[in-house]
Amino acid sequence: MKKDDFPAEFYEAQYMAKGQPLMVIVVWAIAIFSWGIFAVQVILGVPVGNNPAPDSAVWVIMIVFGILFPLFMFSLRLETRVMNGVFGYRYFPVHLKWRTIESREIKKAEVVDYSGLREYGGWGIR
Q1: Is-contact 124 90, C-beta < 8 A?
Q2: How far is CA 109 from CA 43, 67, 75, 78, 122, in A?
Q3: Which residues have C-beta within 8 Å of that of residue 55, sequence separation ≥ 6?
Q4: Distances from the Cα of 50 to the Cαs of 33, 78, 81, in angstroms?
Q5: Spans in the chain with pLDDT lower than 50
Q6: Which pLDDT belongs to residue 89?
Q7: pTM of this prediction?
Q8: CB 98 within 8 A of CB 89
């Protein structure tokens, strides 16, 4: 379900890659490292390391860590919506379906300023 599939009173999407430069650097470093190993061993034909993996394993590593892992990490987002007294959330692409909480189930809600990294060790669902 996309944002436009329902008229929400409130909708917000928090992308995990935005505002977290360390995560972006780590993901790109892993991807570039796997691309480099692939280029040297498969394209140039020079074995990497003392006990090199077979080319088929290097292909798998490049596809998983060079393509799929970055796509997954950069598509992560926490979406929240409020509509007709119902709070909905999902952590896409981990949760494809919306989870909902009725307003009568919420005992207390308040606006709070906090440092996610300092107080909770990071961002996301806790």
Answers
A1: no
A2: 56, 40, 28, 18, 21
A3: 41, 42
A4: 17, 43, 53
A5: 1, 3
A6: 92
A7: 0.68
A8: yes
